[in-house]
Structures are given as C-alpha cells and as structure tokens.
Amino acid sequence: MRFLALLTIMMLSQSGLLHAQAASSSMNEEGFVEAFEDSSQKLDARSEKKSPKGAMLRSLAFPGWGQWYNGQKIKAALVFSTQATLVALSFHFDSEASKSPPGSAERERDIDRRNSMYWIMGGVTLLSMLDAYIDAHLSDFDTGPDLAVRIGILPPQTGRLPQHTAIAGVSLRAQF
C-alpha cells in the first residue's frame, strides 16, 4: 500500500499538480468576484483534437492512461490508484481464502469478497473507458467566456439588504 501511495505522489509531482498555481481575483461586470488564472496554456494544451477511440483503448490497456492522454492528470492518478487498490484487495482476499480450510465459512466469505473486487474492477474499467472517450470528444469544446457559469459573491443591492451584507449567487451566461 505504501508503494501505491508513493507511485501516486510521484505521478502527481511529475505532472506539476502538487505545485501551487498563482491566481488573482477581480470583480466582473455583473458584480461577481471571480478567480482567474492564465488560461492560454490550458487552451493550447486542449486545442488539439484527441482521438476518442484512442483514449478509450488507452484506458482499457492501462488504468488512467486514457485520462492522462486527455490531459486529466489528477483523474488519471485517481483511476490508477483505485484500480491498484482493487487489485491489491483481490490478492489479499485470495490469499486469505487459500489459508482457510476448504468448505469453511471464512473461505467462502473471502472468495465472495475477491469475486466482488473483480466485478468492481470491471465496473471501474468501463467507467474510466467511458470517461476517457467522452473527454476526448470534448477536447476541442470551446469553454470561453461566451459560455460560462460563475459562482461567487454578489455585492449588496442598495435598499434591499443592510450595507455590509453579501449574498452568494450563480450566473449563467450564453452568447450566440
């Protein structure tokens, strides 16, 4: 288990996700306080069209490879860690079952748990393949400011609320 944790930390540090990113905040024209960062790198990285079939097959071949291909490094690490944990648990339950005498209740329980891990691994694999496929289809989707959902603090409305009251709000903007 320590090996899995160390491997996950190494994957995250290689991708630069453990380093803090600077963000600044500003008030937009609708009165929302929003945080933003330099998105030019994100647009360049996601501007190329990814192959959905390639992403799906990568996710089938190695857990998290399809997510890594799509630029979703944290998701790739989570998929890999989940699959590795399920494999380790299935080996554990298999070894526990082999230690128990044949026909005992403990052996049957451990075999059932092992088989459950196999089914869960299959489900996680299918979900990660579907996720990689969909994310690759959306790799060139425009997420610019013309289609945005903002969650933030609204400035107080004069006359309706006391002066120092702030309320949370959601803004959905779509420009055609």
Primary descriptors:
single chain, 176 residues, alpha+beta, two-stranded antiparallel ribbon, 6 helices, 55% helix
Topology:
Blueprint: H1 2-15, E1 24-27, E2 33-36, H2 40-46, H3 52-61, H4 65-69, H5 73-99, H6 105-137, E3 147-154, E4 167-174
Antiparallel strand pairs: 1-2, 3-4
Helix pairs in contact: 1-5, 3-6, 5-6
Notes on the structure:
- It is a single chain.
- The protein is 55% helix and 14% strand.
- It is built from six helices and four strands; from the N terminus they run H-E-E-H-H-H-H-H-E-E.
- It has helices at 2-15, 40-46, 52-61, 65-69, 73-99, 105-137; strands at residues 24-27, 33-36, 147-154, 167-174.
- The strands form two sheets. Strands 1-2 form a two-stranded antiparallel sheet.
- Strand 1 and strand 2 (33-36) form a beta hairpin.
- The protein is elongated, with a radius of gyration of 23 Å.
- The termini are far apart.
